[in-house]
Amino acid sequence: MKQSVDPCLGREWELHQLHSLLSYAESQNCTKTIYIYGITGSGKTHLLNHFIDCVKSAGKRNLAFSQPHNCPAHKLKFSIFNFIKQLLQIESTATDMVITKKVNLVASSSLSYLRTLQLLGFSLSKNQRNTLAKQTLQQMNKIDQQIAYDLIDYAVHKRIALITIDDVHHLTYTQIQFLRLFIEIEYAQPILFILIAQPKDLLTSPPDWLSLAHTMPLKQLSLDAQTRLAKHCLAKKGFAIAKYQTEVKVAIERAAGNPAFLQQLLLTPDYQSFQSTKLQQFIDNTLADMPVELTELFQYAALQGFHFSASQLTQFTHKKHIHAPLCLAQKMLSSGLVVRESDHYSFSHPLIWEGIKNHQPLFIKNSVK
């Protein structure tokens, strides 16, 4: 029997907004998009899973996509190929003949038929390839837009009410260009799209193609919400809440409104240091995957404090003889670990700042003063 998803403590307003926008899409017979974003641990995926459960309980169908590297069992792996197949309700065991018949059924023109087969990875004949090659860029865009309309129309015919895509920041440029076809225009079909992302990579800030989307930043939880979440977390583990009041207070202070960090701190066995091993491993792995000079820049910035200035970054890049300092600073912002404000930079969370300071080896301390 499937376990129920934990309640969205502290995210009740956001959950209400999701329900309201789904009802709006259905009543106005139009597609709507919600863009939910926030730093790691802010509860984006949990909110989404809770809402998906509510939609399923109401007897409505949904398609839930995630990224291949981190795709849970109950979600579909996102790719242009898989996205089209799922919208067309094509089974994984379907033969090429079955697929081509379904595409021919749904496609509204011979060009959209050929283009859909091309996107699905079919080998086209020389004449078919030449036909598509003769189309101008503007004509191809119109064909792709028609494909999006056809796919949405068929999904509604199959009673799909909700389409969600998690970790959108991991999409490639080509995948985002395809997804834009479904997002930039409000079609006259009752489907709600929900996109989830961290502010990083191609989505460091909300892009123009999401201008029609309802944006929903997940901010820090209030003190009351954190307290309720902490009590729920301890009770779920069978702990006596009265015995952990001091630990709850410290964890809330250090979590600074981040629900995942709060739960990690409450479940840590080391109540003296109150450090999250899971978070430290995440930061260590993130920094290990970066170029050495970028890792060094992060550690140097962390030594300057939670806030640091552009001039301090310049001091580092000059001393290290970095050839493209602006590019390196942009990579820092694109990581999602740092945010830029009007006149300074800040780490996205105090525990992320702390984790970067604790990252080994800390050779920066001796090399840059």
UniProtKB/TrEMBL annotation:
Limits of the Orc1-like AAA ATPase domain: 8-194
Positions of transmembrane segments: none
InterPro entries: AAA_16, P-loop_NTPase
Protein name (database record): Orc1-like AAA ATPase domain-containing protein
Species of origin: Pseudoalteromonas porphyrae
Lineage of origin: Bacteria, Pseudomonadati, Pseudomonadota, Gammaproteobacteria, Alteromonadales
